């Protein structure tokens, strides 16, 4: 089976079949919607900086709240990256970050489902698939050029 990502000089080649690209895009959009709606599953995208609620509130006033908005924007823009044949190393690094965001939110959703005694197989499969993509992308990024 061909890896979904491979290195070609100073770029990363995407070899994702259309169906896998669509699933990944839909995952990014879903996570963006969850984060934008303030869903509890998104807390890991911007975890609290302080244990003290007063210090945390001060941080939010200073601009700490913009983190989720930035992540939502990045996730929505990341969808377009998956239509490309090649990505720069910088774009590939951003895609790795976005895939990780998707896994973080999905992990929290799975925890909530497990606590409610709901364990849909698709959630586990999607989490594994995104992990596979992230692993392949990180491997391609870490490949030494000779």
Helix content: 55-70%
Overall average pLDDT:
85
Query: Low-confidence runs (pLDDT<50, min 5 residues)?
Result: none
Find the structural class using helix and strand composition: mainly alpha
Q: How many distinct folded domains? A: 1
Any idea what the shape is?
globular
What's the SSE pattern? EEHHHEHH
How many distinct beta strands?
3
Strand order of the largest sheet: 1-2-3
Strand content: 5-15%
> Main sheet, how many strands, which sense, barrel?
3 strands, antiparallel
Our Rg estimate from Cα atoms comes to 17 Å
* Secondary structure tally, helices: 5
Distance between the termini: 24 Å
Protein name: DUF2017 domain-containing protein
Architecture overview:
There is one protein chain. This protein is mainly alpha-helical. The chain has one domain (28-142). It is built from 5 helices and 3 strands. The chain has helices at residues 18-36, 53-64, 66-81, 89-115, 121-142, and strands spanning 5-8, 11-14, 86-88. The protein has a 3-stranded antiparallel sheet with strand order 1-2-3. The longest helix is centred in the C-terminal third of the chain and has 27 residues, at 89-115. The protein is globular. The chain starts with a strand and ends with a helix. The mean pLDDT is 85. It comes from Ferrimicrobium acidiphilum DSM 19497. This is DUF2017 domain-containing protein.
